[in-house]
Amino acid sequence: MTLKERFRLSRFYRGEKATDKPVILNHRRIFILPTHRGFNFAILIALILLIAFVYNNNLAYLLAFLLASIFFISILHSYKSLAGLILEKGQSKRVFAGEAVGFKVNISNPLDIERYNLQITLQDSKGLTIKAQNKACMTLYSSTQRRGWHTAGTVTISSTYPLGLFRAWSPVQFNFKELVYPKPSKLELPFPENSSSETLQGFRQKGADDFYGLREYQSSDSIKQIHWKTFAKGQGVFSKVYSGESSTEIWLNYGHTPGHDTEQRLSQLCRWVLDAESIGVRYGFSLPGFELSPDNSLSHTKKCLEALALF
């Protein structure tokens, strides 16, 4: 690392380049500054020294030098509270837009000293203590707003051990990157009847064989037809609609999806994909420039959601 890179200001709050490898905290990565309490402590020492100088009081000199020694020794202990720790990125789980992605960070303490009063921060802070030659796994959450790839910011581990006079911290950047699916529509609309597949003809006649979709509850509907899951979520009262023929396939097509804009269409498609997967219906999937043959499996659902996220 060149001298210019070493004194680059962003290193103090962003850290070095993002990496996938484990990071060992050493003198190059750990920074120390006095806390508010530390500044007040330094002012107290200066004040006692001034009194000792004015009144030529040896006991005041002794007290000032004693406090100063504690002040400077705390720097070493603050550094040792982080030195030698090993941080490693863990796995993360894909979520829908609006949910928080949980990124796991594994922290190893290979030395024979216990690490007290540690704080690890991404968007929120979590406290922990790691025993000698032990490990800890922390899940840090990063909120999402839109679909697509979501990258997390800098993970900062810090400590004010032992006396709170100094804060030692180390910013670390990992290649935290996770795919965020579109937010499913809150309305569980019936599957589209105007898809290009002929197999949808069987859904146009209401019967009691295969599940077709949902519609608003009517007073003439049987209580057995109520979709209780939707009612429990507070989304309204809907009735389940069934088809009279044994159709086993449907097509979910972007061009036949209702919505005022692209995001609303993708949101509704996401809802249909989840509904079709949950009830075991084979479904084909079509976006402009992308198409999947009818299937019903976790891998098929995953491919559809990925296509929606990256559309």
SSE arrangement:
Layout (H helix, E strand, L loop, with lengths): L2 H4 L16 E2 L6 E4 L1 H20 L2 H23 L5 E7 L2 E2 L3 E10 L5 E7 L3 E6 L3 E10 L4 E4 L3 E5 L6 E7 L4 E5 L24 E11 L11 H5 L5 E6 L5 E5 L8 H18 L2 E6 L2 E6 L2 H13 L1
Parallel strand pairs: 4-12, 15-16
Antiparallel strand pairs: 1-3, 2-11, 3-5, 5-8, 6-7, 6-10, 9-12, 10-11, 13-14, 16-17
Give a verbal description of the structure.
With 311 residues, the protein is an alpha+beta fold. The protein has two domains: 179 residues, no CATH class; 113 residues, no CATH class. Helices cover 27% and strands 33% of the residues. The chain has six helices and 17 strands. The protein has a five-stranded antiparallel β-sheet. Strands 1-3-5-8 form a four-stranded antiparallel β-sheet, with no helix packed on it. A three-stranded mixed β-sheet has the order 4-12-9. The protein is elongated and about 100 Å long.
